[in-house]
From TrEMBL:
GO terms for molecular function: guanyl-nucleotide exchange factor activity; translation elongation factor activity. This is Elongation factor 1delta. GO terms for cellular component: cytosol; eukaryotic translation elongation factor 1 complex. Residues 155-241 form the Translation elongation factor EF1B beta/delta subunit guanine nucleotide exchange domain. Keywords: Coiled coil, Elongation factor, Protein biosynthesis. Belongs to the EF-1-beta/EF-1-delta family. Residues 55-89 form a coiled coil. It comes from Odontomachus monticola. It holds the Pfam family EF1_GNE. Residues 119-146 form the Elongation factor 1 beta central acidic region eukaryote domain. The keyword Transmembrane does not apply.
Length: 241
């Protein structure tokens, strides 16, 4: 009987029965937290599986881009050297023309023969009417002879590099558009396609122009107006004919 009394007293002191809602809440929070931890672990495993191939793919793309950049740097270096070379050559042609020949070397053979003509006769003839008549006849004959000789026409042979926008440009159509440029004193010549890089070709075309009738700057501007096909125009060679 005493023992039953002691147990009853002990149970009376225990508050677990009165605080059951609190214990239930704590238990629920514990299991909810454990469930969230499982979700976090699952997400962590999934992210590792996704990130690893993506990193490998990014590293491969980065290496490919580095190779492309190196190729482009090499092409740009060649282009800079080419432009420098052209810039050094073109001013030399414009500012430092070839040394002109002497008057005697420039004179045609027929002109040299004319040197033997004494327009004013011999001093021994005297300054009389007969001598004056002879001088006038010889001068008229010499003037008529010179007027029949054709005048020399200054011409230049030019080779142009016409570059397209990309490898999809129709090069045949571009050449056709270039050859449509016509004017007095301009004659188009041979042409060919020269490879540049990455499947891109440039059109190298020659022409002969009369210096007094056709300006090189004008011709380049007319070609650059073909904007659908032409990116730029450079002078590859310039020679007097």
């Amino acid at each position: 009987m005493a023992t039953a009394t002691v147990v009853t007293a002990a149970l009376a002191q225990e508050k677990v029965w009165l605080d059951k809602p609190s214990y239930d809440k704590a238990e629920r929070q514990y299991f909810e937290k454990m469930a969230k931890m499982d979700d976090v672990m699952a997400l962590t495993d999934m992210s590792h599986q996704d990130v690893t191939p993506r990193i490998a793919n990014l590293e491969k793309r980065n290496k490919d881009l580095q190779d492309v950049v190196q190729d482009l740097e090499a092409v740009l270096d060649k282009l800079e050297k080419r432009v420098t070379s052209l810039e050094q050559r073109i001013p030399y042609i414009a500012i430092c023309p070839a040394k002109p020949e002497s008057v005697e070397e420039q004179m045609p053979e027929k002109d040299k023969d004319d040197e033997d003509v004494d327009l004013f006769g011999s001093d021994s003839e005297g300054d009389d009417a007969e001598a004056a008549k002879i001088r006038e006849e010889r001068l008229a004959a010499y003037t008529a002879k010179k007027s029949k000789k054709p005048a020399l026409i200054a011409k230049s042979n030019i080779i142009l590099d016409v570059k397209p926008w990309d490898d999809e440009t129709d090069m045949k159509e571009m050449e056709s558009e270039v050859r449509k440029i016509e004017t007095d004193g301009l004659l188009w010549g041979a042409s060919k396609l020269v490879p540049l890089a990455f499947g891109i070709h440039k059109l190298q075309i020659s022409c002969v122009v009369e210096d007094d009738k056709v300006s090189v700057d004008w011709l380049i501007e007319k070609i650059q107006e073909i904007e659908n096909y032409v990116q730029s125009v450079d002078i590859a060679a310039f020679n007097k004919v």
